[in-house]
Specification:
Length: 153
């Protein structure tokens, strides 16, 4: 009987750990730290051809549409009182931009997807280099009605 109770307890703990770890993938950090892979860091992008900055406020992204050339870097800066998690449309999968997918967050592929993969607080920034020509919708994963568009020529 003790063995049965022990087995059930181990199974329940395993289920709890699995559910808790999956939830953390989609939950923003409460105390975000600014750690960005080198590919996404504006400071380490010597071939960046221009300054493309989109400001995020409590009312959304400004400008809501930005046109850039292929290969240009866009910085999303959070000036709001809330967290910002910029990601490719469509909520919640983030698969509109080629090769992007929320399931790639936390993997080695994360540096190549149009997805911040976490929330950024007031004053923090995240950026992405657009190498695919097209019109790309995006949103704040934490407030999906806040959207924008990047047009890559």
């Amino acid at each position: 009987m003790k063995k049965l109770i022990l087995i059930v307890a181990i199974i329940l703990i395993g289920i709890f750990v699995f559910i808790f770890s999956r939830k953390n993938v989609e939950t923003p950090l409460l105390s975000p730290t600014l750690t960005v892979t080198p590919r996404l860091s504006p400071a380490s992008s010597p071939d960046k051809t221009s300054e493309n900055i989109i400001l995020y406020s409590d009312s959304g992204y400004d400008p809501s549409t930005l046109t850039v050339k292929k290969g240009e870097f866009v910085t999303f800066k959070n000036n709001s009182s809330k967290m910002m998690w910029t990601a490719s449309a469509i909520h919640p999968t983030h698969k509109a931009y080629p090769s992007s997918d929320i399931e790639k967050c936390g993997t080695q592929s994360q540096a190549n997807i149009f997805d911040a993969c976490k929330g950024y607080g007031q004053g923090e920034s995240w950026g992405f280099r657009f190498d695919e020509v097209g019109t790309w919708k995006y949103h704040n994963h934490l407030q999906p009605n806040h959207t924008g568009t990047i047009v890559v020529e």
